[in-house]
């Protein structure tokens, strides 16, 4: 199901927006992006080409999500966040197709790990954010990082696993 076109926001003809999604005024959703059920996207957001937003995700105002990003359910992105190209937010700590007994893994066989990206944070290209992580206000994640633990407010982290490099005291 596709949301009805709106003069309040722009969606490319190839984008797929579920009718239950709510998209804020001035937002732009570019080609081949998919917005699932019950997604909330704030005002003046830009979602680049081939962005996937899973069901129930909330995105604040003035967020920029570059091409080829995947944001899975259980993720909250606050206002003023920048997400570079090819960033992935995962929500399953123990991903498997089958259980150890060989049965297919179903919804009841796993627990969603939540991810929160606080306002003003910036996540560099190609980074991966694992479940049960909060990225602090105005913090930065360097390109190609794998974020396995919480990131403090106003902190630069990078690497695999991402490690604290700088705490900007002036930011606090």
Automatic annotation (TrEMBL):
CDD domains noted in UniProt: LbH_WxcM_N_like (cd03358)
Matching InterPro entries: Hexapep, Hexapep_transf_CS, Trans_hexapeptide_repeat, Trimer_LpxA-like_sf
UniProt-listed SUPFAM superfamilies: Trimeric LpxA-like enzymes
UniProt keyword terms in alphabetical order: Repeat, Transferase
GO MF annotations, alphabetized: transferase activity
Pfam families: Hexapep, Hexapep_2
Domain of life (superkingdom): Bacteria
Listed name of the protein: Transferase hexapeptide repeat containing protein
Lineage start: Bacteria, Candidatus Nomuraibacteriota
